[in-house]
Protein 1
Amino acid sequence: MNQKLYRLLECVFLLSIFLSIGLHELNERSRFSLLNEKTVESAAFRSQPVTEDMISFIQPLNDPGEILGIYWLESGFIKKTRTEWYSKDFFKKAKQTWSLNPAWESYSAACCAIWDDLEYFPVPESSNEVKAEVSYVDSWMYERNYGGTRGHEGTDIMASENVRGFYPVVSMTDGVVLHKGWLEQGGYRIGITAPGGAYFYYAHLDSYANLEIGDTIKAGQLLGFMGDTGYSKVEGTTGNFPVHLHVGIYLTDTGKEISVNPYPALRYLESRKIKCAYERG
């Protein structure tokens, strides 16, 4: 009787080990499947979920794209906080695993395109006594109704003083001017293609700096001034909303135009503001 019981317990023990190994293997395969050729197009990736702790970790870095790409895969594209994530050694080891996935190269390139060219917050800080504050929230996919119901594909940087032509707007990256001119929804806008391939979109401008399509620009270079243009087919229309800057970030290398949430990138750039003297007209 004791021998039978022993064998039964032995079988149960071995079965539990095999189940544990199987579940671990299943979990690893499931986690590995997060990365595929469609990952960059997913709503989870496009929302760019980043905790404030992770923002603080990457702020000193000039090339945070790859680290964030690994962070999202490790976290399952959910905002999470784990102490071991705030270590370059952790990301180095994790990369060894994720880089075995055939989709890694294109995924990593997309992450770097969004993040590694970022240099300056798009609205400078006042260096004199003139008050010129801005604010913004994570409004990704908030409902918008002009021209039909849709999700908000950007972040609105709001002016504390509702004065058009007062707040300068600078380029967040180096790049080339791809688009300039009037759009019904965006008003006077300018679009910059950064070196990594991402497209940075600045809308509702009041006026432009002396720039033309095809011009090469540097990060921090003046693009124009914040305004309230747009929401009309009639060029020059103003006053349909308060003065603000709409910032959008898009990926185009996949053959599709994919919008991603700019809010985390703006949080990353919060400590990188150019200072300039504001002047009232």
Protein 2
Amino acid sequence: MTTQYTASNFKNEQGARWCPGCGDHAILNTLHKAMAEVGIAPKDTAVISGIGCSSRLPYYMNTYGMHTIHGRAAAIATGLKTSRPDLTVWQVSGDGDGLAIGGNHFIHALRRNIDINILLFNNKIYGLTKGQYSPTSDRGFVSKSSPYGTTEDPFIPAELVFGCRGKFFARSFDVTLDVTREIMVAAAKHKGAAVVEILQNCVIFNQGIHSLFTDKETREEHVIHLVHGEKMIYGKDKNKGLVQVGFSLKSVTIGEDGYTLDDILVHDAHCQDDTLQRELALMDGHSLPIATGVIRDVDGPTYEADVEKQVEEVKGKKGFANLREMILKTHETWTV
């Protein structure tokens, strides 16, 4: 008999210590619900974080958890999953923890395709250290560490994922709870490194940074929710859609300039060729709507499964089952 879980099975008695109104509260509650829907027992689940506001999250989980060191969440999550492939491993990082000091670990986790679920909270600011610009802050952004505006171009997380040949990428906002739960569940079911970017609001140091996409008055005209197998349609009246013109995407109004519903593209998240998925992921919400939902979800060999297989093959060929037997049988030792 399969055990049925509820969100309460994944909560503990700790009260979340984030600022009132912080988007992290909504993400935490949604993660509890997503884990219940996936149905993996709390004892078979681990949540790993680095340093930052988002990295408090493991304290509020009734699962195994590790609050590690700055930028090293992906490395520790990789080690855990490799040594305990039976566990479901979630990584929680902010845009600073995950893409600045942790950027190297982030890209290699994706390159290796280790089976972990990476929740990337992107509020385009360092919140815990009180408001410095981050790797995703826009050029010209004024902050405590850039009082005259940044002179750097930001990372686009999706671009990093695709550049590392990532197999899964999805996006949502902290206020779109159903979409966030939907993509968390999809990430958990995906075998391999799954990146879920959650555009999140920092009410203290970057209030309203994503308001164009989250305010009720503007979001329907600037956000498109992609669902595999469905037409790419958006807009307040659901009368706009995406078509391909040459090598580029174009937003059109259905029924105008000769465009019909038949011309609108159908989303294919499972296509191995990532060309169109990459274009969709890089839309910024201005000339083209920003995309939410599962944008890419394709199969590929996973690091921990191949390592486990290799270990068993080598043990079979070499005739030893552990380190002590290896030392005794190979005689590859020396005295200092």
Protein 3
Amino acid sequence: MECYNCGIILGKERVCPNCGVDLRMYRKFVGISNYLYNMALAKAKERDLSGAVADLRLSLQYNKVNTNARNLLGLIYYEMGEGVAAVREWLISKGYQNEENRASEYLEKTKKDPAEKEKINQLARKYNQVLSYCRQDSLDLAVIQLKKILSGNAHFVRGWQLLALIYIKNGELELARKALRKAETIDAGSVLTARYYKEISLLAHQGAGKKAKKAQAVAYQNGNDTIIQPKLRADIGFWGMAANLLIGVAVGVAITWYLVVPGVRKQAVSDASVAVTEANNTISDKNQTIKALEEQIDALSGDVETAQADMKDRDAAVSASEALLTAYDAYINENIELAGDTLEGIDEKLLSDNGRKIIKTLREQVNQQYLTKAYETGMQAYNSYNNEEAITQLSKVVAMDEGYDDGNALYNLAQSYRKVEDWQNAIDTYSKVVTLFPDTSLAYNASRYVTQIEPLLDNEN
């Protein structure tokens, strides 16, 4: 176990021997996270994948760096056909623990197999197309596309559930049941699958009631009126009498047999009583376990709120430190644009004293190169009439140095705003040129453009 603040390996200390932070609450969180992970593992073995996913998500809320829980969550997503979600979880896991992490192995297998990678991407695109068909009420096209998806991705639970929902809407209840059975073999604990089963049973019951009522009535035409009346029994004749005689014999046999039922029933009641007693004992044991867990949760609830507030502040500090590392890595790899963009978004107040010194030095080294690169990219876009990109790049330059290149950066930014007809930003930027660089050709041209644009802005308003 590592200290969440300084990262040193810990024993059973309650206080970190290196940085002095209190570890008791942190150990409780880690313990709860591991307990939930073990519960999820047991559910996954029983194919209750939805239940396992819920436990794993809660486990990661208590300890987001629990890579075992995150890797298992990725594997379950992969088993359910959610390849994109699986890769996302493994990437996050690898970000927290780069060495000796099974997530690296899973990601490597995905990278080595281009067909598998393309299969994941195709599944996401095709499923989004299916959803689009459903929104357009093109259910026939949606069914065709879903069948294509499921032919190559038989473990895609959401696909089977959506196919069942479409069948339910179309009244094809037996086909819906078959689709849900497919989903159930993959994820036996899905609440959504159970809900669809319940809906099918309700619709089937309603349909059976309608058929029975229809069979019990006949309709005929009387002039312009339609008369509906119950069916009457026809004269049964000789064969009907024979049938009634046989039925009478059968009823007699049934009555005779009924005399044996009390003994059978008594034995069944006895067996049921034994089963109920055993079930009550099991429920009692489980209730005691649940009560003990609830007491533990109540004892921790007050501490959780305080710890969550502390963890939020620590998460912000960790995010700032990670951003600083990203910027430094980009600078080392000569990706000056990424380094500059990353440094711009870092709040120095969240960094340690050492981190502030590092970011100050790094900014001094990056800024000039960043400005030069951004200005070159912006001017290339401007000269290529790509004004949106020119605005993006030149805005970065002007935000750091409004006087860059003797005001040309600011002036060309105003020109780009004018060309995309963003009159207000164009006037504001031209006005800065006039203020910062008076008595120059740039200021003269800027004033002239302001005079031309102001009537256009007034017309818009």
